[in-house]
Amino acid sequence: MNDRPPLPPFTEATARQKVQAAEDAWNSRDPERVALAYTEGSEWRNRSEFITGRPAIVAFLRRKWAKELDYRLRKELWAFTDDRIAVRFEYEWHDVSSQWWLSYGNENWEFDEHGLMRRRYASINDVPITEAERRFRWER
């Protein structure tokens, strides 16, 4: 098995690195790349959906990014312990009708000794916004 640094136990600096790596991967919108950060049997709760394993994660992310167009995410470290990290996040996206959304919430992560996430629990809220209310302006 390959390690995915930084590894637990986390310090503030390595927890911040882990959060930034997750933000970068999710902003790639590449389901296969994102899934490599999780254990083979990783358990997720995303809103009301329960997902187990990398193939299910990839399928979920494909569906997600087919719906959530021009997705852009920011994550912020909230707290950490030896093998757990809590983050707050927000992201913007639009649907096929060009309605923009701000989605925000919290995630709780638990890692194995190789630095792979074995559990991810996400609580997410969605708020419709106008184009003028967008906060994230990245080049496409």
Commentary on this structure:
This protein has about 140 residues and is an alpha+beta fold. It has a single domain, classed as Nuclear Transport Factor 2, Chain: A (Roll), CATH 3.10.450. It has helices spanning about 10-30, 30-35, 55-65; strands spanning about 40-45, 50, 70-80, 85-95, 100-110, 115-130. The chain has a 6-stranded mixed β-sheet with strand order 2-1-6-5-4-3. A hairpin with a 2-residue loop joins strand 1 and strand 2 (about 50).
Provide key terms for this protein.
140 residues; alpha+beta; Nuclear Transport Factor 2, Chain: A; six-stranded mixed sheet; 44% strand; Response regulator receiver domain protein; DUF1348
Classified by CATH, the class is Alpha Beta
User: What oligomeric state do the depicted chains represent?
Assistant: single chain
User: Biggest β-sheet: count, sense, barrel?
Assistant: 6 strands, mixed
Across the major sheet, the strand order is 2-1-6-5-4-3
Write down the Rg.
15 Å
Helix content: 25-40%
Structural class category:
alpha+beta
Approximate shape: globular
Organism: Opitutus terrae (strain DSM 11246 / JCM 15787 / PB90-1)
Pfam family, one: DUF1348
Protein name: Response regulator receiver domain protein
InterPro entries: DUF1348, NTF2-like_dom_sf
